[in-house]
Amino acid sequence: MAKKMPEMEEYQYGFRDEHKAIFQTGKGLTAEIVTEISRQKNEPQWMLDFRLKSLAQFEKMPMPKWGGDMDELNFDDIQYYVKPSEKQGKTWEEVPSEIKETFDKLGIPEAEQKFLAGVSAQYESEVVYHSMQKELEDQGVIFMDTDTALKEHPEIFKEHFATVIPPADNKFAALNSAVWSGGSFIYVPKGVKCEVPLQAYFRINSENMGQFERTLIIADEGSFVHYVEGCTAPVYSTNSLHSAVVEIICKKDSRVRYTTIQNWAPNIYNLVTKRAVAEENATMEWVDGNIGSKLTMKYPAVVLKGEGAKGNVLSIAVAGKGQHQDAGAKMTHLAPNTTSTIVSKSISKHGGKVTYRGLTSFGRNSEGSKANIQCDTLILDNESTSDTIPYNEVKNDNITLEHEATVSKVSEDQLFYLMSRGLTESEATQMIVMGFIEPFTKELPMEYAVEMNRLIKFEMEGSIG
Amino acid sequence: MSNSPKFVIDGLKATIENKEILKGINLEIKGGEVHAIMGPNGTGKSTLASAIMGHPKYEVTEGTATLNGVDLLEMEVDERARAGVFLAMQYPSEITGVTNADFLRSAINAKREEGDEISLIKFIRKMEGKMGELEMNPEFMHRYLNEGFSGGEKKRNEILQMAMLDPSVVILDEVDSGLDIDALKIVADGVNNMRSEERGFLIITHYQRLLDYITPDFVHVMMQGRIVKSGGPELAERLESEGYDWIKEELGIEDETVGQEEEEFKMPMNTVAPEFK
């Protein structure tokens, strides 16, 4: 007999808790507010100067004229800094109880026990919980929130901070540079391989909140680290903004994998700048899943700076009703024999819009380099749309660039075939969708793959009938 | 007795894009029986198969199809499958990213109550066993469903699904097309092993060849969207040696096809080229 489908809900993580912040700036953005954020954090003068300069830069820069529709994004209506608690917990008992309950509901402490080497949990603007396995600490791995790193590791921090993404890179990078708070700082020493992933979880709770975490990962020569981030927020009728900056430095022969499962509520603008620099024979892998948000504009980038460096982006984007996923990747080949691979899988349904926007460029010294780009789109109904906008820049004759793009619909014949074996229409559609994103889910750690499949099933349940 | 199914088609008419293809089909298949429907291309044989299964392209305008007295035509495609109807398709779809094993396990569990799903070990044993009988390479278990399968491999995979799903009415739509003689024997063995009082078969075929290996109890000839002649196995033998012309003469039929321009366009380009007259 037909199995009962679980009841349909709009967005599963849309609950909120009643936690009261201990400090908040109120709405709007001024030099006074930026100064106050820096004062609250007890920062060195250079960081305050950096913030104020970035604010000036932000005010000077125009809104991007391409990408998604940001007409409803009002910078004066956003709260830029909310401090949830006095100090960071090293155990979950030290975390304020409402906040702990929220993370319990999201399954973070449970996941930590089962399969993570370290966990960071950010709530509003600050990291409220942080821990890492002792073995990694003993090997010299640094994993902490970015604010603490600024205080405890000032030299290595200052040496790398804002070197991959300067404030003037784009308007939202400038905004983040002015008001950044929280995020993860990771340093992996030479030759150290972290076999078990480190995870950060980002949660927005308040209405009109802006979350501006800043992540900096430095993988020293021959090291390896896998970092995973997840994000959710309650559903409000007004908009919130998430605008992160993620900088990664992969030194010679190192490898970094950065996995994101973004499942923001459908009222969040998710405007994120992510970029890595890969030195000689280093490998950078972005595994990027975008399921939620109102508008996502995100193009994980790899600057292939050293000979033989490799960059991969593997992404999926799912856009439902009222959602626009404008996502893609940027690969910049600057050295000989560098290789890059972009695999983008997009799904649109219920009038959602997905755009693949990508830039692959080959500099004068990129002799013998290769790039492969593959964009596949699955459109589930006639109201939904998809665009593929690839840009290529080539300044060297001896390179290889391949681009493949497919757009498909769930075909009547495929559905008929699966249903003729007893699967319901909704089970059959799910199966086709899961098969479509299989190249993505197979790259996730097992537990995340299970979670991802669950999320996609959940997303798909509303798609039929 | 209660396990022996009774499948009855009565006065079935069906259209595609308002063009009538089936013009009143009557057929009764009981458990243990093998019926063959033969006929030249374009006479409505495959339409009959698809209409019974409920392909959305076809609209049934008149008549009934019942299994043990239960109306199939009121059901969704998946409900017909769970009621016990199985269609081995002429052109099985390819589904990327879904392994043969995952798919079959979901299909088996779709028929079972929640909480009574087949255990993984039991499932794998059963699948390995059936694949062995069909001389399928074990790697096909983990290949994506029909993706990159040759024509013969797809047909064997259809028979594998039939064997795994244990249906009570089996319709084989041109399951012999694209098979070499060895594969044909294997497929025929697969079908013969499944013959029992608990199952009825409807074999749709263009050629007599398959019936050399699966002996039917009844043979029907289809032309112009109707069954125009029925008989025993000897009818298939006569068709093999003399072709269809004698039936056309006997019945005064000049053009045996129905809705033919449509059918020509529906042929996938890589299988059978359309006939130009």
TrEMBL record, chain A:
The gene is sufB. Residues 41-199 form the SUF system FeS cluster assembly SufBD N-terminal domain. This is Fe-S cluster assembly protein SufB. Pfam families: SUFBD_core, SufBD_N. Residues 202-436 form the SUF system FeS cluster assembly SufBD core domain. It comes from the Bacteria. GO terms for biological process: iron-sulfur cluster assembly. InterPro entries: Fe-S_cluster_assembly_SufBD (IPR055346), SUF_FeS_clus_asmbl_SufB (IPR010231), SUF_FeS_clus_asmbl_SufBD_core (IPR000825), SUF_FeS_clus_asmbl_SufBD_sf (IPR037284), SufBD_N (IPR045595). Belongs to the iron-sulfur cluster assembly SufBD family.
UniProtKB/TrEMBL annotation, chain B:
The keyword Nucleotide-binding applies. One of its GO terms (molecular function) is ATP hydrolysis activity. The keyword ATP-binding applies. Residues 258-277 are annotated as: Disordered. SMART domains: AAA. Keywords: ATP-binding, Nucleotide-binding. SUPFAM superfamilies: P-loop containing nucleoside triphosphate hydrolases. InterPro entries: AAA+_ATPase, ABC_transporter-like_ATP-bd, ABC_transporter-like_CS, FeS-cluster_ATPase_SufC, P-loop_NTPase. It comes from the Bacteria. Belongs to the ABC transporter superfamily. Ycf16 family. This is Fe-S cluster assembly ATPase SufC. It comes from Chengkuizengella marina. The gene is sufC.
